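Bug #77: duplicate submission created two jobs. Keeping one. Sequence:
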Amino acid sequence: MFVFRAEGIRVVLTAPQAPRMNAIMERWVGSVRRELLDRILIMNAHHLRKVLAEYESHFNSHRPHRTLNHASPLRALPDPIDADIKITRRDRLGGLLHEYTQVA
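Kept job's structure:
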């Protein structure tokens, strides 16, 4: 902990009222590492912030989550349709992340 403070990093301890907070953050950090940081070369702190902001937007608005029945946190799944549908793919972060949407 002293090493972090020497570098000017503020250490945030787990709140006693939220014992699962550490597990939730470890899962999010693991997702960021596997899906993003293990696949892209980060050049500097500005680049890291930009990439993480893009990933956060993808994570909260499009990426499916198993615990939400494959919906995203900020958007519910639409009702299924039986008609022929067209799908478009949008690449994010230079093609590292893919988002699929229905075309009306």
